[in-house]
Amino acid sequence: MNKINNKADLLKRISKYEFYHTIQLTESISTPGVEFVHDLTKSVLDSMKKIDFKNKRVLDIGCRDGLFSFEAEKLGASEVIGIDNHISKGAVEFLIPFFKSNVKMYEENLFNLTPELYGLFDIVMFPGTLYHLRYPFWALKTVRNILKPEGVILLETAISYDQSKHAMLYCPVKEESPYDPTSVSFFNEKGIIDTLNSLGFNIESINHLNLNNKFNKNINLMTQIKNATKALLFSDRLYEPKNIDRIIIHCRLSGKSELEKLEQYWDSIHHNREGRAIIE
């Protein structure tokens, strides 16, 4: 009888919150997360097992309900901080106390991250966020700046497989996005790899998730006809990616960048021999 009452009480407490992540609480009870992301989150959880979290400081960007934060803690992280621009009340008020967890969560925009804010990290979890950002290059540079030497990023994002020869970034707006209007930055594979390399990261592993466009928005018949007509009329200058899927990349911050001179050009003031600032 006591078990039934405890189960009923737990379900009642869960019902007070909305959850994105499905997080196992007991053998028979989990948070009612969004079903279509199950395969994706499982892939990220499996990928985490390939990283040594023991005694590491970990940052979870876009932490939502803390699924990956709690997993990092289970894997031995010494400290886990999660940030999100809309903090999960269910995580802060219910999950952290329920698990007796030491995970700390803050409502924070990643572009505010500096070494002075929360310190430097050994590992940054960066799943499901990059393609939502209007300034993806600056986001990756911001993350690089709060990593310790030899620090690791687990990056999961959406990429386009339509173009592969050249490094590209597809940046749609509004209804042109293959996902939803908040999804605005889709690298192709060469684009994200070259970008990470240019920021001083060495790629350690790549996992193509092959989720078969599971996250693409549903397009009705009239919209399909409209898009097909546009493609015929403007095929020479219209780019509409058909094959968007997900990828997980493990990369490590290199102690020395091969693009040091270019980084100085991108990030610094340039001077000629007389000491005057110039544009090269």
Architecture blueprint of SSEs:
Layout: H1 2-14, H2 38-48, E1 57-61, H3 67-74, E2 79-84, H4 89-99, E3 104-107, H5 115-118, E4 121-127, H6 136-145, E5 147-160, E6 169-170, E7 186-188, H7 189-198, E8 201-208, H8 221-233, E9 244-253, H9 260-267
Parallel strand pairs: 1-2, 1-4, 2-3, 4-5, 5-7
Antiparallel strand pairs: 5-9, 6-7, 8-9
Helix pairs in contact: 2-3
Question: How does this structure look, described?
Answer:
There is one protein chain. Helix 2 packs parallel to helix 3 (67-74). The protein is built from nine helices and nine strands. The chain is α/β, with parallel strands linked by helices and 280 residues long.
Summary keywords:
globular; alpha/beta; 280 residues; 9 strands
- Contiguous helical run count: 9
Percent of residues in helices comes to 25-40%
Q: Spans of 5+ residues with little confidence (pLDDT < 50)?
A: 219-225, 227-231, 233-238
Strand-residue proportion? 15-25%
Cα-to-Cα separation, first versus last residue? 77 Å
How would you classify the helix and strand content by structural class? Answer: alpha/beta
Q: What about the largest sheet? A: 9 strands, mixed
**Overall radius of gyration:** 21 Å
The helix/strand order is HHEHEHEHEHEEEHEHEH
**What is the count of β-strands?**
9
Shape: globular
Mean pLDDT: 86
